[in-house]
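Weekly sync, protein design subgroup
Attendees: M.S., D.O., the rotation student, P.L. (late)

Item 1: inverse folding check
M.S. brought a backbone from last month's batch and wanted to see whether the design step gives back something sensible before we order anything. D.O. pointed out we never logged the input encoding, so this time it goes straight into the notes. Structure tokens as presented (423 positions):
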């Protein structure tokens, strides 16, 4: 009986499916967890991307706020110079309007007591400006203008060429490694290549078709590029000039610009630019120049003649026993106030940083200066140096127009921005 009952029990089909249900439940839970993890990951990535974008936007507008404030400072400087420049002369007092760097939040001086520091922090915390920025304004005009190699003024052309050549020659004298590596380089040809870049003529200043050297470069790089026959728009374009390498570019870059004042200002030019005026100006003489222009007891800033010359500067240089190789009177110098500025504004929010660089230039004054050089050259060649450049023989009337232009008020509106870069 027992055996029969056991046989019947073993022959009955199994109907217990609890194991299969458990496996289905586990698989469902794993699938739900997979979708949850994917959704969480995608949400986290999207949050990070959007957060970074938000931080970059905040940093950008912080940099733009610093830029707008800098343009305002330059405008205030121009207005103050227009109103008080005649009384103050070449005093550097007004330069402090634009010269000192500015940052937000303002740096808290260490000498303040704890209560004042807390008040500073409270003001910053209550401000709606939760991002930070740092702004610097530099003089951009007191450098060698590379585009003057193609200036309508022969004087500016020759002086610019001589200054660029002086830079290389002085580097060879001061740096043995540079002299050893580039003693056989003809830097006159390199400068001619730079001028060929801008010249509308097809013939190179070194002889032959100027596109021939670009043809060699095109074969190496498999491109089809030729000189654009226009002025440089950025200094980086120098890299595309035949014969230019990184050593030459790094040597020139801090000394040159494409937004010059059409003349070197001895009261503002850097040490390297001052040395480029003549090979006879040594480091010791440059140090004396800087000491003189920054110290009222030593004589203060150099003064320019009514005709635009600077006999005061050259007399001082020659009093230091400088062995000048050229004629100082052929080098155009200017003691005008600063008219070209370089603004660099860096904004920061969280871990994002944005930078804006802008160049402010007074185009009217630049054109007036070039015209004055052309008038002087025309007068030296026996023409009427007081003409208006359009065949007008009435020199007196043209002279009155030039004087009136100098007396005109500064133009309305913000300063003229000729270059704007964001990164």
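Designed sequence read out in the meeting:
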């Amino acid at each position: 009986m027992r055996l029969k009952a056991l046989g019947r029990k073993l022959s009955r089909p199994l109907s217990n499916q609890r194991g299969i249900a458990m496996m289905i439940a586990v698989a469902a839970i794993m699938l739900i967890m997979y979708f949850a993890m994917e959704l969480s990951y995608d949400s986290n990535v999207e949050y990070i991307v959007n957060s970074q974008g938000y931080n970059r936007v905040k940093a950008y507008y912080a940099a733009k706020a610093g830029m707008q404030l800098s343009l305002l400072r330059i405008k205030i400087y121009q207005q103050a110079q227009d109103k008080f420049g005649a009384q103050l002369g070449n005093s550097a007092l007004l330069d402090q309007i634009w010269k000192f760097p500015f940052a937000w939040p303002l740096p808290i001086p260490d000498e303040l007591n704890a209560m004042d520091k807390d008040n500073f922090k409270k003001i910053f915390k209550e401000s709606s400006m939760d991002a930070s920025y740092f702004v610097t304004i530099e003089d951009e005009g007191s450098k060698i203008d590379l585009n003057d190699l193609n200036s309508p003024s022969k004087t500016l052309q020759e002086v610019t060429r001589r200054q660029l050549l002086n830079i290389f020659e002085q580097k060879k004298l001061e740096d043995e490694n540079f002299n050893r590596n580039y003693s056989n380089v003809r830097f006159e040809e390199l400068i001619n290549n730079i001028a060929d870049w801008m010249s509308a003529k097809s013939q190179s200043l070194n002889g032959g078709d100027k596109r021939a050297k670009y043809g060699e470069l095109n074969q190496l790089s498999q491109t089809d590029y030729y000189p654009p026959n226009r002025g440089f728009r950025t200094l980086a374009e120098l890299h595309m000039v035949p014969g230019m390498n990184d050593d030459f570019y790094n040597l020139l870059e801090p000394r040159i610009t494409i937004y010059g004042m059409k003349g070197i200002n001895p009261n503002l030019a850097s040490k390297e630019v001052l040395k480029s005026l003549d090979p006879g100006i040594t480091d010791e003489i440059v140090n004396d120049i800087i000491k003189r222009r920054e110290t009222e007891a030593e004589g203060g800033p150099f003064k320019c003649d009514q005709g635009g010359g600077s006999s005061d500067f050259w007399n001082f240089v020659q009093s230091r026993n400088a062995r000048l190789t050229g004629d100082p009177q052929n080098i155009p110098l200017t003691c005008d106030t600063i008219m070209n500025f370089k603004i660099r504004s860096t904004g920061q929010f969280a871990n994002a940083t944005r930078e804006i660089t802008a160049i402010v230039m007074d185009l009217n004054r630049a054109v007036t200066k070039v015209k004055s050089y052309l008038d002087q050259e025309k007068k030296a060649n026996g023409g009427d140096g007081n003409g208006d450049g359009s065949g007008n023989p009435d020199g007196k009337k043209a002279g009155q127009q030039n004087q009136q232009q100098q007396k005109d008020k500064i133009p309305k509106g913000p300063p003229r921005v000729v270059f704007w870069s964001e990164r």
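Discussion: The CA atoms of residues 388 and 398 lie 5 Å apart. The longest helix spans residues 18-88.
Action: P.L. to compare against the previous round before Friday.
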